[in-house]
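Q: Start with the shorter request: fold the first protein.
A: Done. Sequence, then structure:
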Amino acid sequence: CDDEGCKYSTHIVNLRVMGDSERGTICPNYPQCNGRLVRQYTEADLYRQLSYFCYVLDATRCLDKLDQKMRLPFEKEFAVLNQTISSAFLEIQRIRDRCAFGWVQLTDLAVSI
């Protein structure tokens, strides 16, 4: 909440509508507070975080960067964790690929004359 006295914070969107306000902007403490909810974490921030997790959990990229001497012991340890890391990587990648920030509309780039 942007009201200095309230400082309400939530991760659940409040769908209450009052007057001409948008959904999700009314503070749940409405009778006591006239403030508005503002985003602290944007969709772009979430996309960047998901992209970072995809980068960190990309085990094949990490293995390709290792020298042959260091690669063999690491591959043995990696074989134990491969299933867990791969499932986490695929799930995060699936969520990230659904996000609109990963898509470019070519009509927005081209100018018609």
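Q: Next, the second protein, separately.
A: Sequence, then structure:
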Amino acid sequence: MQGYMADSEYGIPTRCPCGGRIIDDVRGKDDYDTLHGKQFFTCKNYKADGFHYRQPWVIGVQEHIERLTKRLEEVELVINWVPEVNNQIERLEAEVKALNGEVDNLTGQVYNLSVQVADLEKLCFD
């Protein structure tokens, strides 16, 4: 289970797997740390048993920034693709307009042929 816990600690945690909320914890001067005031994302119910989150703030923020940077790169690709899609839309709209004109022309021809058939039927069968 501890392996799954380690794999789940990525980015800025919002909840601990135990259900506890995450608090901002600052290690004080009395904790025998060489980096006084080091910040952590810590489970409210934290125990040093490997089943609760206690992640250094810097690592969580760095991973979150990396994930956001990747998403930004993906969005930039989509944004760069938008002009090409707009050009395709304009070409398709022009093609639809031309095809609508052709349909109108063919509809007129069909009507003229229907009138001619009706006239021929009158001549032949009257």
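Q: Describe the second briefly.
A: Residues 22-125 form one domain. The chain has two helices and three strands.
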